[in-house]
Fold:
Amino acid sequence: MHPFTYTKAADTREALNAGRRGGRYIAGGTTLVDLMRETVEHPGSLVDISALPLRSVTATKSGGLRIGALVTMTEAAAHPKVHALYPVVSQALELSASPQLRNMATIGGNIMQRTRCTYFRDVTAPCNKREPGSGCAALHGYNRSHAILGTTDDCVATHPSDAAVAFAALEATVHLLGPAGERTVPFADFHLKPGSTPHHEQALRPGELITAVEIPPHPRPLKSGYLKVRDRQSYEFALTSAAVALHLRHGVIREAKVAAGGVGTVPWKLPAVERELIGRRPSNALWTKAAERAADGARPLEHNRFKVELLKRTVERQLRVVGGGK
Amino acid sequence: MSPQPQAAVGAAVPRVDARLRVTGQAKYAADNNPDGVVHAVIVDSGVGRGRITGIDTRAAEAEKGVLKVISHLNAPELPPVEGQWPPGKPLRAFQDDRIRFFGQPVAVVVAATLETAQHAASLVKVSYDAQRPATDLAAADPAGEPETYARGDADEALDSAAVRMEMTYRTARNHHNAMEAAGLVARWDGDKLTLWEKSQWVQSAAFGMSAALGMPPDDIHVISPFIGGAFGNAARTWVHSVIAAVAAREVQRPVKLALTRRQLYFGVGYRPAYEYELSLGSNRRGRLTASAHDVRAETSRYETHIEHVLGPGQMLYSTPNVRQAYRHVPLDVNTPTYMRGPGYASGAFPVESAMDELAHELGLDPIELRLRNEPADDESSGLPFSTRRLRECYRVGAREFGWERRRPEPRSRREGDWLIGMGMAAGVYDTARSESQTSVRLDADGTALLQAATADMGVGTATSMTQLAADALGLPMRRVTFRLGDSRLPPAPGHYGSQTMASVGSAVQDGCDKLRRQAIELAVGDEESPLHGVDPAGIVVRGGRLHVQDDPARGETYQQLLARNNRTHLEAMGSYAGAPETAKFSLYAYAATFAEVAVDARLGLVRVRRMVGVYDAGRIINPRLADSQALGAMTGGIGQALLEHTVTDHRDGRIVNANLADYLVPTHADIPELKAIYIDGEDYEADPIGVKGLGEVVIVGVAPAIANAVFNATGRRIRELPIKPEALL
Structure:
């Protein structure tokens, strides 16, 4: 770990001032501190934002839900409104990390999580994300856990968050506060695909602070759920995952929101799958047909070829779990 | 056998040091902080083979608090070392510029605080002339003479066999991943060295260090009262320990050095990866006629790791014709080491999978096939078995597990998305015993102290020894203390290979018997004793009181006896000679493991639903400790079967999953209902206390039982461990 300074911001203005001077925001610290210990990250100054008033879950006027950036994963998962309206979010959170980590980690921090790519986390390996221009060790290395969607030769790292997959499916927005004031960014635009600049991971401007993630209103009832496929039953990142939310009226799918995790360089929305579903009646045949589109554009690597088929089956399974059918 | 009544032995008593451990009062090696202690952090190689061309330590040395940076450029010269076991030349601390494997220590930073040492270590710049290492077992050639075994003519018998099967099995490299990282504190007092070291064998640790530093072993004192899990990885002197001792001498301060989790993947050994080609020949009734075993295992270029992987294939089943060859493939890797059930746990996977394959081929029940090949004696040695209750293990296991509900046809049981299957496998491990001593002292206050330089890597050594001693001395357990983990105590063998109970336990029994008889002799010869003139053979001790066996009212306590005779204490040295030079019996512990799995047919997920293990391990001293061994081993076996896999990037030899997020061990959620059953019975051919060793045999057979259950569930025969979802899609 490299030496650094640490200050705790008493309010939002103090935090923004420190952020403008180049301070890195830290809340739960469950990603950043790990990476600092491995010297992957070496910020000169940390700004602790955990005292800021961003810790509530509130219903919006339009019927959506706004989750404060400092709400912990545990709190968000257990919140009655999250639980009742968006089981997909609760489940994605509960299937993440461990209880100890979920007690520390926040929603804002969760969507800022950095990749689990082992080469990124090993400072003796080349990595364009950690050290732009040094190359990608994973491309021809051991890449079982890596992405098959949204990759380039510069970076094949998987976005690790489960909650972000649920947010992506539900088309959430990210609320930001910066030196120039407030703004919102659609979730689909928040995480940046690597392109040739994998070190740019989010659409954040210097000093900007995440204040909330807002889930827009969806027609009710909205049936939803999250499936996470992994080698062991707990405390592991996804090999593949699927967030599915469906609204049916008179037995017909009127709204379908589907995203996948463990496979994309960013939380991966599946519009082609959604299009196959809208206007149709639930059936196993429909789930299979729609899920066929889940891996469109996949670019598998040496050790993760199985993810192409596994992703389709994961989406198919979760469509059936949420949408029913025989 | 002891005439003493058995009270403590056989009871499921809790560990004598349980409270110390769970309240954080147990001091592990790196918990020690002698006055003036400073901290060392190793800089490890970022290439897998080559030479160091330069080390720039200026930035590190400029950090406030850094005392010294040591590398091959400035390290003191150390004597050459010829390794006895494993054969080869052990890695030495900074004696040349050669890189032998990725992660090899290239420098050490010593600083006043751990944080300073860590930061400074990250500032050391090392340049290399790097070459591509060879680290892939599948792509490299063996070297040296293979270890071979043969009886009959296996090739001819295979050619003429009615049924012949040829399979290749592969098992991944596994790391022990004990909770406690390898670590130590080294302190010099003049020419004397004290090591607070994580060690399964304190006296060997002193010898290992003495060889590395070229100093008398008697000048080295090793202390290791508690171990936070080891599974075999703390049984030899690793180079980081030598580095700590060298650093302490260089800076003239006590030095603490603990490996990071990442460094454990190349700083200590591992269970080597194997390729195991196996041919079986049998007649139509399932009687084995021949087997041929061609085994390749990884080892380092500087040492040859040897373990008895050929064991199960040699003696588990009656087979007239057997041919085996065990070849070592030297790679640019650090040396493997023993890991729980060494050799046997790796060899059982092919052998026990193949038996399941043959049973399926012949349409026989897997247990029936095994029973048809149950040998009358040990065909590898020609010796009779001392005890072999494997048939009973099968019978009891089948009953407890509900084996009769297994459907022989794969894919015939489904629950929703899950295919359900059952599998079983046999396990075996040889009963090792070694020379051992234990001192016993009974004080005038009626308490006893036993001491031996053995260890407790988590099995509960002090507890089981206390139970044995309590019964032999006729004392309640609370009045007996067992001390271990200090090289100055009476000699004991290494705490591995399931030999501690048999070896140290037998010395404990001997010492306590001697002492008890001494006390009885003192009493019967003492005119003032109520026991005066009684036949010593008719006297027992219970609750600290010596009395006539048939007349409990006639007797006196140890305290009364010692006080009246003005004795402050009695003492005796217990000893056990170890295994006889010429074996008269074939000595093994046996296991039968049963597993039920659910496999998600579409997603490839394997979930173990329940397991039953049945063990013939001789006498069980403490069923609670035995359970902690058996259930822990089933857990480890689930890891070996489904999760554990150390992955090497063959481009540069880097371990890519050197952390506990990417190297997967089972979590609580992965562990279902586990049940362990011990077949009653002592084995006094094995040792005077009738035990056969338990800690290893309990893992041997777990992985094949699971793999066989996966086959029964899915019809897919997976011959490579761990079994990952992609193999089942």
In short: Chain A has a mean pLDDT of 97. Residues 2 and 42 of chain A are 6 Å apart (CA to CA). The first helix of chain A runs from residue 12 to 20. The interface with chain B takes residues 1-3, 39, 116, 118-119, 121-125, 137, 140-142, 145, 229, 231-237, 239, 306, 309-310, 313-314, 316-317 of chain A (CB under 8 Å).
